[in-house]
Write a structure and sequence with these properties.
Length: 375
């Protein structure tokens, strides 16, 4: 309880706990933790320790795993269905037992005993912890009492780490990894923020209003998700940070603290265009029209921080540079080019020879026209 304060990760605590159990004479040869997690891609995760491992193995499980035969025919399903404990001797001669495939795997690995309990957290939440032994005869009564006595303490220690991880995951999911770090570090005051140089990308889907009026709801959601995957994954892969999804649009920045930020943004756009082409091929096969989009790109200083009401904040960027990127995105509708970039960005990126110069164009709200480039 007291020596774990400086350890952030539950897998490291679990590894050390299993090692100390062996040092204390409790013959643990294998241990697992099974957690449900709030993640957009994963239903849960399993942490696996085997005797001799310095680090645990962590495996995630997608949504739908509970419908598989592997899960249904397992002691984990038995515990999730209400069992208070699952115990099985794995050596021959211990009577009839459920023929779970896991037991055959454990026997093949040399384990002689298996026990699993619910790991109870607050408000009725529970996860699962399991231990196996490789000692002939398995666990004795003293071993089982020692393991059972650890559960309440380990439940508290694991819940703290799991909740910390959930908070971080939820923030990363909804505001992005960099903003989440800022918020967790204490940037929660309205108006708090910093001025940073950034390449700014604003993207918008064309004719979304007409699509949403004519298409069934589920088709619209599927379309939006496919469009955002095509656009967002290259942005994040190349170091961009998506600050918000705005209906059918998105706002992302590539901080200039990375010397390659502008080149990374261009790479992200090229990959996003290829992904959109592939998506449109699939849409055409389904009888849907091709999706159009507009992208505006600029570079400059932005205020990066908290904006909003007293009780509801948005971690975002604002400033004239953001406005110019937005105006460029709107201009794509008029001049029928999907990606428009300002001269300031092109000069910063050093990519003028790779682009088409479209000349000077007025932007709404700006006094002077600016030079525009297109892919």
């Amino acid at each position: 309880m007291t020596e774990t304060r400086d350890q952030r990760f539950i897998d490291n605590i679990f590894v050390e706990m299993c090692d100390r159990l062996n040092q204390a004479g409790v013959p643990v040869s294998r241990g697992t933790l099974h957690f449900r997690i709030l993640h957009p891609q994963w239903l849960g995760a399993r942490i696996l320790w085997l005797k001799g491992m310095q680090e645990a193995d962590i495996q995630t499980f997608g949504y739908g795993v509970e419908d598989t035969a592997q899960y249904r025919n397992s002691p984990i399903n038995e515990l999730n269905s209400g069992a208070a404990v699952v115990r099985q001797h794995l050596e021959p001669g211990f009577g009839d037992a459920p023929s779970y495939p896991l037991y055959d795997e454990l026997r093949a690995e040399g384990h002689t005993d298996y026990i699993a309990w619910p790991l109870k957290h607050t408000l009725g939440k529970h996860h699962i912890i399991t231990f196996s032994s490789d000692r002939p005869g398995g666990f004795n009564d003293d071993d089982l009492r020692a393991l059972a006595d650890l559960l309440p303490a380990f439940a508290l220690v694991s819940e703290i780490r799991l909740k910390n991880r959930l908070a971080r995951t939820l923030l990363e999911t909804y505001v992005g990894p960099h903003a989440s770090e800022q918020i967790l570090a204490g940037a929660t005051t309205r108006g708090s923020g910093v001025t940073v140089g950034a390449a700014i990308l604003i993207c918008d889907l064309r004719d979304f209003t007409g699509i949403s009026d004519m298409w069934p709801r589920d088709d619209v959601i599927e379309l939006l998700n496919g469009y955002f995957d095509a656009m967002a994954e290259p942005i994040e892969r190349h170091g961009g940070e998506i600050l918000k999804f705005m209906g059918d649009g998105l706002l992302a920045i590539f901080p200039l603290s990375n010397a390659n930020a502008c080149r990374d943004l261009l790479s992200a756009i090229r990959e996003a265009q290829a992904a959109m082409s592939a998506l449109n091929e699939e849409n055409l096969k389904k009888g849907h029209g091709a999706l159009g989009y507009g992208v505006g790109v600029h570079v400059g200083d932005v205020m990066y921080g908290n904006i909003g009401s007293r009780s509801r904040l948005d971690f975002t960027v604002i400033g004239p540079a953001v406005n110019i990127a937005s105006r460029l995105e709107s201009l794509t509708k008029e001049i029928k080019r999907p990606v428009l970039l300002s001269r300031a960005f092109v000069e910063k990126a050093g990519c003028e020879t790779q682009l088409e110069n479209l000349g000077s164009h007025p932007l709404r709200g700006l006094g002077e026209p600016i030079d525009i480039f297109a892919f």
